[in-house]
Amino acid sequence: MNAASPDTSLVITSNNDNLPGISPRPPSPPRNNATTANVIQTMAVIETMKYQESTSYRALPYLDSAVVTEHDRSALCQWGLSFVDACNVDRKICSIAISYFDRFLSSRSSNIVPLCLADQGDFQLAFITCLLIALKGREGVHVSTTFVSEKMCNGMYDSDEFNPMELEILKALSWRLNGPIPQDFIQYFAQLLPVSTDESVVEMLVDEATKNSEVALSNYAMALRAPSFIAFVAITTAIRSLDLDSLPHLDILGWWNLIGSVVHGNSVDSV
């Protein structure tokens, strides 16, 4: 892509002002004892997120007849991760931005979408704007459009191009900005691990699965799958790659079967 590499000296401001009608994302759930009440509460949250991913927050294929390519999209995703690292903010922000980006480009309510799919410059502008929306709405971080224009993009875009694009994206998304991403499912699935599981094992498993989910989101075909499915695949890959000798085989198998059952469509009551 043509946007500049992230400036590690980036100065950003943080505030508590969220976009209109948007509640802050809940913090990652703390690890606690897997009592019946906690399990029921966790499963209820998971079921709510599964409903969201199958309705208002679903992304559809959009590159079939586009000029821009899967490689262009993957490059933007990788650049986005580098940018949030340079900003020293949670890498989940990039995953949230990717979710906005895919949903926006698969929407049919904006006349801007065909332009973004036909021109790499507009394609990049849409992604960068999604990143700015995620930073502002989820981290309370505001990056000035002048800085974005001059430092992030080397003057490729004028500072007054971002606000109109932001409005187009927000309208196309119907201001729905609080849907689940794979990392959310990973965190809540981890709450269902046996209470006897060593904290270091939980942390290692979550970290590895999170890395796997970031790789998956850079892959166009995989990113269009449900976040819960991406999380399940990421966890499965993590289990296979890590040394989990400290976790009894039957415990990890039982947990894996449990979350697999939920991901593949069984209701909470039937699990």
UniProtKB/TrEMBL annotation:
Highest taxon, organism lineage: Eukaryota
Residue spans of biased composition, Polar residues class: 1-18
Domain Cyclin N-terminal: 46-178
Start and end residues of each stretch annotated as Disordered: 1-34
Pfam families: Cyclin_N
Gene3D superfamilies: Cyclin-like (1.10.472.10)
PANTHER family xref list: CYCLINS
This protein's name: Cyclin N-terminal domain-containing protein
